[in-house]
From TrEMBL:
Coiled coil segments of this chain: none
Annotated GO CC locations: Golgi membrane; plasma membrane
Record's keyword terms, sorted: Cell membrane, Golgi apparatus, Membrane, Repeat, Sugar transport, Transmembrane, Transmembrane helix, Transport
Protein name per the record: Sugar transporter SWEET1
Organism this protein belongs to: Biomphalaria glabrata
Length: 218
């Protein structure tokens, strides 16, 4: 086994670890009997991302991307179903879900039926994947104003940020080796955001009382 294969496996494993974070969130929802202040947007957004990455993995024939994206897509479907069972704002949930499905169907229809040149279709879908990944990595910063206001990182999960940082670093290295600019650019941004989050922990200390409802994609 080459060191490139080891790097590929390590990147895949770290992605698997982060994907399972949603299970804890689902248990929180089930134990409370309702979704409380937990939004459906992260679950739907990450379902969009993993579904599109799965298509990109199939087009590029990258086994590790296919594995992580397939698992992510399956888990997000489970998380979304659990959320649906316990949410009270069904109409809002349906609206977000319909928008999410459109954000999946339109680009997939583009690469399968509209764009006849495979290379261009793959490149454009890759750009879309990169944008989705950057948004996923940036999602923990949604609590930035709360962190700065309260001068506390209690609303941010350090273990999750750390695993995300490691995962982004591994995927960046792997992408550089196989010369996949989509993997490199999107995950370099994840590394940059990781440093920002680490600085916040350095400045305000590591005092977590609740997990950040954020997952990650390749």
């Amino acid at each position: 086994m080459s060191w490139v294969d080891i790097l590929s496996i390590a990147a895949t494993v770290t992605s698997f670890i982060v994907q399972f974070i949603g299970i804890k969130i689902c248990f929180e929802i089930i134990s409370k009997g309702n979704t409380g202040d937990i939004s459906s947007i992260p679950f739907i957004a990450f379902f969009i991302s993993t579904a599109i990455w799965l298509k990109y993995g199939l087009m590029t024939e990258l086994t590790n991307v296919i594995l992580t994206s397939a698992l992510g897509t399956l888990l997000q479907l489970i998380y979304i179903y659990v959320y649906y069972l316990y949410c009270t704002k069904k109409f809002q949930f349906y609206v977000f879900l319909i928008i999410g499905m459109m954000l999946i169907v339109i680009p997939l229809a583009y690469v399968d039926f509209y764009e006849s040149e495979f290379g261009r279709a793959k490149r454009n879908l890759g750009v879309y994947c990169g944008g989705l990944t950057i948004l996923c990595y940036a999602s923990p910063l949604a609590t930035l104003s709360e962190v700065l206001k309260q001068k506390s990182t209690h609303s941010v999960s350090f273990p999750l940020c750390f695993v995300n940082f490691v995962s982004a670093s591994l995927w960046t290295l792997y992408g550089a080796i196989i010369k996949d600019r989509v993997l490199v650019i999107s995950n370099v941004f994840g590394i940059f955001l990781g440093f920002i989050q680490f600085y916040l922990f350095y400045k305000f200390g590591c005092k977590n009382t609740k997990p950040t409802h954020v997952l990650e994609t390749p």
